[in-house]
Write a structure and sequence with these properties.
This protein is mainly α. The protein has 3 helices and no strands.
């Protein structure tokens, strides 16, 4: 699927590896000049993912966290 131009939704049980799959897909999108988005159902999971993505920020990748608690300014 990474060589295609379509969208992909991954649904799997907890602990099955959805986050690493998403990270690979997001990095592939970045390499192609595209964007990626994660939809996370719980704030605690959002906090955990945001901490993991801090490394990406430190390497110069633009990572934006959007929640219902914050507004994005253009």
């Amino acid at each position: 699927m990474l060589d295609g131009r379509g969208h992909l939704v991954v649904v799997a049980p907890t602990g099955a590896g959805k986050t690493p799959i998403g990270m690979v897909a997001a990095l592939e999108a970045y390499a192609r000049g595209r964007k990626a988005a994660w939809l996370v159902p719980q704030r605690s999971l959002t906090d955990e993912l945001d901490r993991d993505l801090q490394l990406w920020r430190s390497r110069g990748l633009r990572v934006v966290r959007l929640t219902g608690e914050a507004a994005l300014r253009a």
